[in-house]
Structure formats: C-alpha cells, structure tokens
Amino acid sequence: MSVFTDIAWGVWASSLFLLVLGVVLGSVAGRSAARFMEQRSSRHHTVMVRRLVFYVIVLLFAVAALREAGFSLDVVLGAAGILTVAIGFASQTSASNMISGLFLLVEKPFEIGDVIEADATIGEVIGIDMLSVKLRTPDNLYVRIPNETLIKTRVVNRSRFPIRRLDLTVGIAYAEDVARVEALLLKLAEKNPVCLEEPKPFVLVTAFGPSSVDLQFSFWVPKDKVLDGRSSMMVAIKQTLDRDGIEIPFPHTSIYAGSHSEPFRVQLLGPETTANKEPLDVDQDR
Amino acid sequence: MESQTEGLQDGVWAQPYTLASGQTQYHQLGQVRLWVTLLDQEWQLRSQTRAPETDPVTWTQGIGHTLPSSDVELQRFIRPGDSNVVTFIPGVASLPTVIRPFQPLTIPAGGRCVIYVGTVVWMKVCVGEAKTVLTEVPLGMPSLTWVGRNTMEGELCYSSSSFARLVLEAVPKRPWRAVTPVTIVNQRTEPLLLERFSLPTPLLSLHLNERGQLWTPGVTVVCETEMNSASLNVDQSLLAAAGPCQQVGPAREPVARGRLVRAFDRMFG
Q1: What is the pLDDT of residues B72-82, one digit of tens each?
Q2: Burial of A142 (0-12, 13-18, 19+ CB in 10 A)
Q3: What is the ipTM for the molecules in this complex?
Q4: Is the separation of the CB atoms in B100 and B195 below 8 Å?
Q5: How far apart are CA B243 and CA B239, in angstroms?
Q6: CB pair distance less than 8 Å for A163 and B146
Q7: Which value, in Å, is the radius of gyration of the alpha carbons in chain B?
C-alpha cells in the first residue's frame, strides 16, 4: 500500500492536466490559425501553419508538464543525447523519412491539392506529413507513399502549370491525303471550346508505320479539362474521319487452318443424319 | 417552338417580368435559347446553344405555355419565397478577354487611337425581389486562349476576334454584346503593332442606355517604354455617345493595384 501512497498523485495529475491542456489549446490555436489563413493563403500553407502552431504549443506544454513532474530538462536532453545512437539505429527509416519530409517541404515539388504521379501511382495530394505523403487516386483509393521514396523516385506534378498539352496519335491509311487530314484536325481544334487558341495546335507526321501514316495531333487545354479534352477530341476525330471517308487502318488478324491454308469444310447435318451418324470412338465396344 | 414565335417582344435587361404558375418565358438572344418556367414550388430553366454560324440581331421574348423537347437540358431550382418575378441581369466575362483584330493595326510612334470593342456578356437569371441569382448563361460560345510570356507564366483568357473598328457608328450594337472604347496611347519612339491585347473585362461594370445597348467604361492603355510596362486605367465615366445610362451589372472584381500590375504584364501577350 505504501507504494501507492508514496506517489505524489497531485503532481502527476497537474502534469497530465498540463499535457491535456496543451493538446486542447494547440488544437484550438491551430484551427484558429487555419481559419485566419484559409482566405489569405493556399491550402498547403494553411495546413503547414496549423500543424506548426499545434506542435509548438504542445511541445511547450509538454516541457512544462515534465518540469511539473519533477524531471529536469537537462537530464532529459542528456538522456536523449546518450540514446541518440541507439535510437538512430532503431529508427533509421523513420528518421530518413522525416528528413526527406523536410526536404519536400523546402523544395516544394508539390502542394496539397496537386495531382502528382509518383512510384507508378497517380493521385491528388491530400496530406504531406512527417513520415509520408498521402494520395487519393482517381478510383478513390488511399495511397501512402513514404517521404524517402518520393525523394528518390521521379515525381511528375501534373497540375503545377495552368495549361497542358495533349498529344494524340492518329493513324491514317497510306492512300489518304495527309494535308487534308491535317486541315481537318486543326479545324476540330478550332471548334472545340476546351481547346486553347494560343498556344496554337499543330499536327506532325511522326512515322510511316507498318500499315498507317502516323500523325501527332497536339493541342493545349486548361489543366482541369484534360480528360474532357482528350475524350471529346477523340470522339470528334473518329466522327470527322468517318464522315469524310478517311480510313483509319487497324491491325488485322488472319487465322490459317493447317499448313495448306485450306478453308474449313462445313457441312450442315439434319436430324435424320444426326441419328444415323457413327458412334464416337469412346462409345464403341472394343 | 414555331407556335411561340407569335406574340414575341423585345427583351430588356434588368426589367422584372411576372409569370404565373405554369407559365414559361421564352428568350432567343445571341446563340442561346432559354426557357424559364415557374411552377408552384420551383423554377425550371432550359437552355440550348445554337450553332455559332447563326447571327441573330435581336433579343426576343414571349410568355406562353410551350416547352421545348425533352432533349433540352433542364435545371431545377427551389423557388425562394413565393415571388413570381424574374429579372435578367447582364454580367461581364469572368476572365480577361483577348481581342485579336482580323488585320493587325499599327500605331505610329507618339500616336494614339480609340478602338471600339464588343465583348460577349453572360445572362444572370435572377428571381424574387432580392434578385437571387439562379444561374449564369453565356450568350456566345467563348473560346479559351492563353496570354503570357511562356506556357508557365500567364493567364487563361477568353478570346474574341474583332474588326478593331475605329468608328463608333460601324460597331454593331447587339443586346448581348457590351461596347468598350479602348484608347491606346503609344508614347514610344517606335511604332506599336497591335496584333492582340488583353482587355481586363472582370474589372468593367455594365451600363444600359435608353436604346437597350450595353456599355462599359472606357479603358486607356498607355505604352511608354516597353510593351510590358504599359499602364492601364479604367475610366470613371462612360462615353458621351452612349447617352444617359443606368448601371445594370457591377464589375466582377474590384480595381486593385496588384491585379492591374499583373494585367499590364500580359497586356499585349
């Protein structure tokens, strides 16, 4: 019983109270700061400031709580110093991710709300945290990528700039007039409301393929109209080329029966013929 | 819709129209056909964009009970209060509008000119005494373009081809186009070739004169040394030729210095 009575419950309770108060105050202050920043800054900076305010306040209250509990800060820091090597080895991955996270914040290759492609995953950045970056993919999956991976791998930011160029490959038959097709495609770009007038759309002949002359049709769209622009333009291309009788060749597959390439022999059997047909080998009595 | 062509009258901006429950008001202006229907609990809007080749010159409207075919897109809105009044307020484009004369215009060194530019307006459908905006309909098909030093820095704009008319009488006055007089002053020692320029339409307010024409305040662009350092000023008053006017649509954005400086950078692309 003396074990329990020896503990200074009052001191521990006040320390705990300080800690909880810190969390509550940090949370309230963080939210207030975020509300203040919302109208004045980007979502990315708002989240950063909210977290910074929260962690600073919680840290201050945690230090106060430690002092209240009777821990000397010098001793705690000294112990942390001694443990650094052990902790460093033990938490190598975490430390690496944290440092990578700092680099990501400083270098700022993307912000919250950007659509990025990293590690063969495309998604909208919904959080940049201490250890990882969280993405929401177009098919609504939650993907967590460690910060270290993002530092090492190639990251494509698909929404950094306000406009994007779409390159469509259009193959036409060798018999078709390339100049006429080019004019038709440029006319389509002119008509499409998603397609920008400047920078100008253009058409290039990129290859003489096995069965088609390959053209590259490039045009610019606002970054939020990429899917719409691609799909509506492809539909329009197909309709226009069909209407103007321009052939879009596609690979053909031929099936050959046997080495002599003879056609299959097809014979229609009536019910009476079927009844008189020979029994199958497996049904024959041997 | 043939039956609705009877009893059509000219439409007017900012004039309250009263509908009875079950009635439909039909509008035809610009490239748009619009049907506004009042029901007991809701407002219904149907709009259809016509081919850009059509070039109507008037705004006609009529009230009846005829609805278009079901393939016209329908929008439904809860009827705020029991008001049966609908008003149509014009609005300027939400993005700057790039004006590209069909034939480039050269302004000699030290010269100045006034060109009259017509830009497409948006129709805000407002209901009730409080003029609650239900939706906005563009009265022309605006195409998009990019104005900037490169594809990284710049601004998305609407595009408008223009004849860059220098005579006010030659400018066609349409109910769905607002006329802006743009004064360009070339204070440089070299001629200024005007191939295109960006008109900051969101900064302009809309005014209606007695003939039902829409006007915006004039814009003065002074080009002193370089194209990029051109200064822009939105006039306080309207052109005298517009006659007595009432303001019917406010500017979308307040004239702020920071906004203008950015606009100057991209004035001439």
Answers
A1: 889 999 988 78
A2: exposed
A3: 0.77
A4: yes
A5: 8
A6: yes
A7: 20
